[in-house]
Amino acid sequence: MSSLSRELVFLILQFLDEEKFKETVHKLEQESGFFFNMKYFEDEVHNGNWDEVEKYLSGFTKVDDNRYSMKIFFEIRKQKYLEALDKHDRSKAVDILVKDLKVFSTFNEELFKEITQLLTLENFRENEQLSKYGDTKSARAIMLVELKKLIEANPLFRDKLQFPHLKNSRLRTLINQSLNWQHQLCKNPRPNPDIKTLFVDHSCGQPNGARAPSPANNPLLGSLPKPGGFPPLGAHGPFQPTAAPVPAPLAGWMSNPSAVTHPAVSGGGAIGLGAPSIPAALKHPRTPPTNPSVEYPSADSEHVSKRPKPMGMSDEVNLPVNVLPVSFAGHGHAQAFNAPDDLPKNVVRTLNQGSSPMSMDFHPVQQTLLLVGTNVGEIGLWEVGSRERLISKSFKVWDLNACSMPLQAALLKEPDVSVNRVIWSPDGSLFGVAYSRHIVQIYSYHGGDDMRQHLEIDAHVGGVNDLAFSNPNKQLCVITCGDDKTIKVWDAGNGARQFTFEGHEAPVYSVCPHYKESIQFIFSTALDGKIKAWLYDNMGSRVDYDAPGRWCTTMAYSADGTRLFSCGTSKDGESYIVEWNESEGAVKRTYQGFRKRSLGVVQFDTTKNRFLAAGDDFSIKFWDMDNVQLLTTVDADGGLPASPRIRFNKDGTLLAVSGNENGIKILANVDGVRLLRTFENLSYDASRTSEAGTKPTINPISAAAAVAAAAAAGSASDRGASVVTMAGVAGDTRSLGDVKPRIPEDSNDKSKIWKLTEINEPSQCRSLRLPENVRVNKISRLIYTNSGSAILALASNAIHLLWKWTRSERNSTGKATANVLPQLWQPSSGILMTNDVADTSSEEAVPCFALSKNDSYVMSASGGKISLFNMMTFKTMTTFMPPPPAATFLAFHPQDNNIIAIGMDDSTIQIYNVRVDEVKSKLKGHSKRITGLAFSHLLNVLVSSGADAQLCVWSSDGWEKQRTRVLQLPNGRPLSSQSDTRVQFHQDQAHFLVVHETQIAIYETTKLECVKQWTPRESGAPISHATFSCDSQMIYASFLDATVCVFTVANLRLRCRISPSAYLPASVSNASVQPLVIAAHPQEANQFALGLSDGGVHVFEPLESEGKWGVPPPIENGSASSVPTTPSVGASGSDQAPR
Fold it and tell me: Region entry Disordered: which residue ranges (predicted)?
C-alpha cells in the first residue's frame, strides 16, 4: 500500500472517531494494522473481554511472530486461566488450558506442567509464585503494565503506537478543498453553489447572469468562491471551511489547469493514492541552501521517505523499543540575526569588473569567492578578501563545429553575447554560465585560478535565461530555461539531456528547483507572468498561475526551505515581492516599499530565515520576512544603478551589489568585516607569487576548510553554521582526483612557524574546573553536546555527568565557556544515568558512548549491555547486546541514523541496525579490541583502529575491507597491550587523525598513507588523548605528565604548551592526576575540555585579549608567508587563511 493510501486510512479513522463510529474505528485499526490503539486495548483488558483483546491483537501480530508476541499472548491467556480458577470454573479452566495454553508447551514444557498442576489446588495462591495474586482488578492492572512494556519493545508495533498529529476534521477539509477546485472548473461558476452530492463531480448549472466574484489579493487563484461558500453537507454537520483568505483546492498549486495541449495532471482525482503530487511534497520541508536555485539532498531523505515516520519522542534513531523516531536532518541552523544592525550594510570593498555585472554568486563553501558574469559575456572570479581577481575570461565557443546551425548563424549575425546567469554547484566543484545566445558552459573549479572546461551545451534556441543545479535521484543535474519556451534538464557529468518540459507560451524567464520529503520539483516563470511547476517526469506542468506583475519574476526559498517568495516587475515598472502559502497556492503577504515605477527589473535575495533584500530606486531595500513594511534602505555610499543586482553569501555576512561604471560593492556586517580582515592580514606575498611565476594552487577542500575556519573567528551565531556546513558539502570526489590533497612538507623558513607559547601560570589562560557533587574516580570519556551548550562525561564507575550552561548576562549565547560556571544537571527525579556493569572490574571495562545529533539521547556502555538514555529525563530507554563480547566503541552512521558501528572487545566490528534489532554485518580484521571508529560520508568508508595498533578501511556500502595498515611505531617503542589507538576524520573527510601513546599522525584515507607524524621525545610522557579543533586547524593533545599541547595541523608543529601548574592546584601532584581524555568545542575553535583521572573536568580558553592559542607567524610586507603553496589538509587555520 502506498504512503498516501496509508495516510488516507488515518484520515478515515479520524473521521470515524469524530462521528462516534466506535466499533468501526477499532475494526479498521485491526484490519489495517496501521495504528494500535493502546487506550482501547487497556479498556478491553480491564474489562476482561479476552476474545476481543486477542482478536484486536491479531491484526498486528500472531503468537509465534517473535518472543515478545509469544509473551504477550501467554500473559493474556494465563490471566484468563487464573480468573477461571479463581471462580472455581474448572471446566472453563480446562478448556483454556487445552485450547489456549497448550500451544506454549512446545516452547516450555515444564512451565505448562506447572500451570496444569494448578488445577489440583483448591486455591492456586498456594503456589509460591502466585501467592501474591490479589483480586481480579489488581491482577489485570499489574498484567497490563507488563503487556505495555512488551508491546512497546515488540518491533512489530514500532511506528504504530501513536496516531499522527492531524488538524480536526482533516478529511472534511480536503473534500471541501476538492469541491472548491471542482467549482473553479465550472464554465459558469455561481457565487453560492448548491452541493447536493459527493458521488459525482460538482458542476454549476446555467449562470442566469450571476458569476462568482474574483477573490481579492490572490493573483494565483483566478476565480474562486468565497470562504465558507458551500452549504452544510450531509447529516453530520457542515464541513469546516479552510483557512482564510481563500479555501485551497486539494491540489493547492494544482488548480486552474493550463489550456495548452500538454498532458494534464496525473491522477486528476481529489485524493491521489498513486504517485505523490506536488502539494504532498510541500507539506514537510527539508533544509535547502540559501541559494534558491541550488538544492542539497539530505543525507537521510531517501531513508526517511521509505517508511512511516515513527511517533513519540523526537530524535533521529529507532531502537529496539519505540523510543527514537526519525527527525529530518539539517534543521539545526545557526542563530538568526539579532537586529537589523546585523545586516551587511557597510561598504568594505569596491571592485572594478571592467564591464557591467549581470549576475553574481558567492561560492557555497569559500564564502569570500565571488563569481561574476557581465553584459559582454565576460566571467570573473574575485577573492573579495584580498581584492584579487583570480580569473577573467571572455566569451568563446569551445567547439564551434559542434554547435547547431541556428547558433552559428546567430553568432555571425550578432556576435555580442551577455551573461544571463552564473551559479555554483552545491559543493562548489562546478559552476555554470548561461549566455544570451543558446549556450551554457559548465566549468570545474579546483581552487585558486584553476578552472577547467567541463561541459558546453547548446541548450536553447535563443537566449538561455536561467540556470540552476539540482540533485534528482541523487544525480547532479543542470536545469536551464530559455527563449524557446522550454525548460531542460541535463546530466551534469556528461551533458546528456534527460528531460524537456514544454507548456509555457512565452520565453521562460527563471527556474527554481526544490524538494520536500522525497519529492523533487521545479518552479518556472515565463515572460507572460505564468508560474508552472514540474516533476522530473513527462506528465506536464502541475501548476498554471499568474505571478504578481505578470512579466519578469524570480522565485526563491528561505534558507530552511519552509518559506517561498517571488519577486517580479511588470512591464509598467510596478514591482512586487510576495510570500506564498504553498499549500493553497495563494499569496500570503505582499511587501511594501517599492518605487511606484521601478526603472528596471528588480532582483532580490533572501538571507538566513529572516530577511529579504531587493535592489530598487538606486539603493538596497531590506524587509523582515514577517513584516510587510520596509525595514531599512541602504544606498551603499551612492553610485548604484536604478535596479542594482544583489547577492548574499551563504552565511549572510556579505552582500555583493552591482554599481555604476562596472563596479561591484561588497557590503558586510561585523562578522563579514572580521572574515575579510582575516584575508587582508593573511594574503599571499605578492613578490613570492611573482617569483614562482604562477599562482599557488589551493586544494578546494583545504581552502574550504580555511574559509570555514576564518568564519569561525566571527560570532558564535555564524560560527556554528560555517563549521557544520563544511562537514556536509564536501560532496564531489572529483576534486580529490584532480588535486591530490596532502600535508605540506616542513619548511626551514622559521618565519612560517608559530612561536611557541608556554603557559605556566593560571593567569595566562582561562581555565575552569566544573562543579562536582557526584563522586567519580576518573573521567573515561568526554564530549561536548552538538549544540555546544553542555559537556557530557562518562566516568569509570559507569556514571554519566552532564554540565549545562544557560543564557545569562555574563553568557548571552548560553554556550559553554570558561568564564561562567555551569550547572551539574540532574532531573527532578534525582536519578543518574548509570550504565549496566558486567562482572568484570571497572578497571577492565572499556567505557564508550555516542551522542544523537539533536542531543536528546546517548548510547553508552561500560563493559555490560549497551544502554540508551534519554538526556532530558536520564531514564534508561532500553538495553541491548549483553556481553560477551562487550562493546568498546560506538559510532553512528552519518547517513543512516539507524545504523550503528559497534566495536567489540573480541576484535570484531558489528554493524547493527537498530530499527530491526539485527546485526547486519560482522567485520573481522583486527586481532585485539576495537579502540576507535570513524565514518567519512565523503568517501563512504569506515575507518577502524584497535589495540593491535592496526588501521582498517571498510566500505560502508558493502562493508568489505578495502585496506589495512599497521601503525608506524617509533624505533624501539614496544606495543603496549593497553594502548588505545583513536581515529577522527579531518573536516575535509579525506584525511584522518590517528592518536596513539607514541604519536600523533595524519593519514590520507584512499591509500591509507601516513602523510604527517609527530612523536614525543623518548624521555617524554606518553600521549593520553588528542582531538581536532572544530575547524580541523589545530590538534589538542593531552599527556600523562598532565601537560596539554596545541599543534598546528598544517605542519604538526607545537604552537602552545600548557603546563600542569596552569590549571592544577599546587597541592596536587601531576604524578597523581593525569588528563585522560580531551574534547573540542563544536563551534568555538579555541575552546577545549579536559577529563582528569581524579574525576575532574576542566574547560580551557585563551585569554580574551589574545583570542587564540600561540603567537601567529610574523607578517611580511602585509602578507603572511605561513600558507604553504601546495595543497594541504587544513593548511590554513583561522589565523592562516589563504586567499
Answer: 285-311, 1108-1139
Alpha carbon distance 1122, 1099 (integer Å): 29
The Cα 79–Cα 856 span in angstroms is 38
Instruction: Tell me the C-alpha distance between 990 and 1006, whole Å.
Output: 8
Task: Indicate the SS3 state at residue 139.
Answer: helix
**pLDDT of the residue at 205:** 64
- Supply the pLDDT for residue 667: 94
Report if residue 264 sits inside a domain: no
| Residue 277 to residues 9, 229, 257, 562, 787, Cα–Cα distance (Å) | 18, 26, 14, 18, 36
Domain match, 907 and 1054 both: no
Half-sphere exposure of 908 (CA within 13 A, CB side): 11
What is the side-by-side strand order in the sheet with 369-374?
A: 357-362, 369-374, 379-383, 388-393
Q: Which CATH number does the domain housing residue 1085 bear?
A: 2.40.10
- Residue where a domain terminates, one of 106, 133, 157: 157
Query: Do 1086 and 985 sit in the same domain of this protein?
Result: no
Asked if residue 994 and residue 888 are part of one domain, the reply reads yes
In a domain, 714, yes or no: no
1014 shares a domain with 1040: no
CA-based angle 422:424:428, to the nearest 5? 155
* Number of domains present in the structure of the chain: 4
Handedness of CA 128, 130, 135, 138 (dihedral sign): positive
Please give the Cα distance from 643 to 600 (Å, whole number). Answer: 6
Cα(239)–Cα(227) distance, integer angstroms: 12
Dist. CA 547–CA 604, nearest whole Å: 15
Torsion (CA) 308, 313, 315, 316 in degrees, nearest 10: -30
Tell which residue, 860, 731, 743, has the closest CA to residue 792: 860
- pLDDT for 51 equals 92
pLDDT at 81: 92
Neighbours of 975 (CB within 10 A): 16
Residue 784 and residue 638 share a domain: no
Q: Are 66 and 154 in contact (CB under 8 A)?
A: yes
- The answer to whether the CB of 600 falls within 8 A of the CB of 617 is no
- Among candidate residues 646, 679, 712, the one where a domain is terminated: 679
* Together in a domain, 998 and 1013: yes
Whether 396 and 473 share a structural domain: yes
Query: How many angstroms separate the CA atoms of 679 and 675, rounded?
Result: 7
Please name the residue that has the C-alpha cell 571592485: 351
> In sequence order, what are the residues at sequence separation of 6 or more whose Cβ sits closer than 8 angstroms to the Cβ of residue 519?
276, 278, 280, 281, 535
Query: For residues 573 and 594, is the Cβ–Cβ distance under 8 A?
Result: no
Distance CA 360, CA 422 (A): 6
Residue 126 lies in a domain: yes
Going from the first residue of the chain to its last (1139 residues), give the mean pLDDT of each consecutive group of 10, the final group possibly shorter: 82 91 91 92 92 93 88 92 91 91 83 87 86 88 91 89 89 87 78 78 60 36 34 33 32 38 31 34 34 36 34 36 33 41 87 92 92 94 91 88 78 82 93 92 91 92 93 90 94 92 93 84 91 87 82 88 88 88 82 80 86 91 91 91 92 92 91 77 41 39 41 39 33 32 42 76 93 83 93 93 91 91 88 84 82 86 92 88 92 84 95 85 94 91 94 92 88 68 92 94 93 87 94 94 94 92 84 91 94 94 88 53 35 33
Q: How far apart are the first and last CA of the chain?
A: 55
Same domain? For 1018 and 1060 the reply is no
Looking at residue 519, what is its pLDDT? Answer: 82
In terms of residue numbers, what domain contains 900?
Answer: 778-1025
Residue 49 maps to a domain:
yes
CATH of the domain at 626: 2.130.10.10
Question: Are the CB atoms for 589 and 581 separated by under 8 Å?
Answer: no
